[in-house]
Amino acid sequence: SVYVLFTGIATGLGMQWTLGFVTFVALWFFGLPTAYFFGIYQAGTLEATWFWYAPPYIAMNVVLLSIFVTTDWHKISQQVREREGMDDDDDDDDDDDKPLVHASNGPTIMGTAFDHAENGTMDSTLANEQTSLLG
Q: Taking the model in full, what pTM does it have?
């Protein structure tokens, strides 16, 4: 399951080729020959074949973790900012007082029920409508 997490991180960072290379080398040049040797050549069982697929995944986790640790995160941040058209000067932003999340223009389903509940005017009809919309 750690490998799946690292796959998502590598994909999010745009390192698909690195991920593909690490996976290809670990599984085709290490995992498959090892599984073949212990599962078929040594007259092992299917269980032995599957067991020897775990070490390549451990190796991939170690390699991907080392790649993530040694990655220049500042450089990646700059590349994302350039790609998205964002300014890189955080010190002199004039929009510091603007909210990061804007409120919607109208009540939400639960917002209406809570607004009425705070005012003490929530009746059973409104509660039934809320329940029917959610379920």
A: 0.56
